[in-house]
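Journal club side-thread
Mid-discussion, someone asked how the predicted structure for our own chain would compare to the paper's figures. Pasting it here so we can look after the session.
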Amino acid sequence: MPWLSTYTQSLTRTQAAHLLRRATFGPTAAQLRQFTGLKPAAAVALLLADQPTPTPPIDTTTGKTFVDLPFNNDLQTAHQTALKNWWLGLMINEGASVREKLTLFWQNHFVSTYATVSDARYLYRQLLLIRQYATGNFRQFVIDMTKDPAMLRYLNGNVNVANKPNENYGRELQELFTIGLGGQYTEDDVKAATRVLTGWADTGFRSTTSADITVAFRANQHDTGNKQFSAAYGNYVVKGRTGATAGDEELADMVDMILRQPETARFLIRKLYRFFVCTEITPAVESNVIEPLAKIYRDNKYELKPVLTTLFTSDHFYEESIRGAIIRSPLELLVGQFRFAGLKTPEHGTTAFNQLGDYLRGRAREQQMDVYEQPTVFGYPPYYDTGLDRIWISANTLALRSLFTDQFIRGQIRYNNVTYGLDSVEVVRALSNPGDPVQMMDELTDLVFAVPLSQSQKDFLIDQVLVPGLPRYEWPAEWNDYAQSPTNAKRMSVKIKLDNLFLFMYRMAEFQMS
C-alpha cells in the first residue's frame, strides 16, 4: 500500500495546517504551534482521542437545558435555536479534535432535519448518537441509527407496519447510508428491507407531560414472513421471526448482509475520501486508496478509527496536490475564521451567545448550508458525489463570502457590545519575524492559503498591497518603530496596512480552497 504508507517525517507548519484544516474546522494559532514538528501518527492520535460529552444546550429564556424536560410548545422555536447555536459553538470552541468535523460528516450522511422532525430533544439525542459512533463501529452505528427516534420520524420508520409498509427508510438505508446505487440492489430489495423494518416506533414525540423519549418494537405490527433478497445480496433470505426480539434480530441479520457486500465498504470509504481528502476520485485513487482502505475497514470488523488513522497518516494525504483540492464549505469558512482569529463564543446560554449563533447560521444559510436543515435526504448537494463541491461557489455566494470576510476584518460584526473580528496586528505579531516583509509573507500565506502562492504573487502582495508605491524598507521601519514604542496611532497605522492586506488575500480565489 505505497499510497497509504505512513508518512514518517515531522510535520512542517504547512503540513500541520493542512491536517488541521481537513480534520477540524481550521487551526487556531496555538494548535498550529502544537502540531508543527509532531510525527503524523502522534498528531492524528491527538485528533482522534476520545472527548468528554459536551454539556447540553441551554434555553436562554429559562437558563436551563430542555433536553430532559417535556416538550414545551411555547418554547419550541427557542429550543431549536438553542440546539443549532450550541452545535455551532462546539465547532468554534473545540480543541484539537476531529469530533465536530466528523459530527458534521455523519449528520450529513444520516440526514435528519429540524423542519421535518420538529422536536429539538430528538435531534439532541441524535447528535449524541453520532458523537458516540463518529470513530466507532459502523455496523452498530447503522443498527442504532435505524432505531433512532429522530430517524424514525424523518424517514417514516415509525409508521412502517406489516399491513401498510412505508419504503422510505428501506430505500435510503441502501441508496444513501450503506451500499449506494453502485451496489445494484433492486426494488424487490427495497421491499424486502422494508418488511424487515416493520414494527418500530418512537414514544415521547412532542409530549408535554413526559420527558421520556424511547423506542419500542411492536411485535404485532411486524411482518413475520421470510424476506428474500436479490442476487445483489447473494439471494440471501432474512428469516422471519416472531416475538419481542424479532425486530432486533432481523435488523442485525439484514445489516450484516448489507455490510458483507464489497461495494458497501467502497461506498463509505469514497464518501469519507471526498469529504476529508479530495472531491475527485480517479482510477488510481480507487485502486491505491479506496480499495486498500475498504479492506482495512472490513478486516477491522467495520471499525472506523483504523480507517481514519490510516488515511490521515498516509503519504497520499500529505501530497502537495491534495492541498487545496477541496473548496471550503460555508461552515469551514465562517467557523474557520473565528478559530484563525483565536476567538471564542460568549458564555453558552447567554443572549450574546445566541446572537452570535443566529448571525453565523444566517450567513451559512444564505451560502446554501443551513445548519441541520439539508434540502433533501441526499444531504448538502456538494457532498453527494464527485466534484460537486464547486456548487458552493456562485456569483451570489462568492459575494456573500467576501461580504462576511470584509466585515470580519473591519470589525463590523457586533452584538451585545461585543465585536468579533480579526486582529491583523496580533496575527502578524505571532509570526517569527514580522518586520521582514519577505519572511512575513512566506509565513502568512502558509497560514491563510491551503495552496502555495507563486513568488510573483507574494511580491505583488508586498509591493502593491502592503506598501503600495513605497520601497519595501518602509514596512520594517514602520513595524519596528511600532514594536519598540507602541502607541495607538502607530498601531492604527500598521493595522490599516495589514487590514488591507487581509482584505485583498481573502478575496483571492486561492482563499476559497481548503
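Post-session note: The chain has 23 helices and eight strands.
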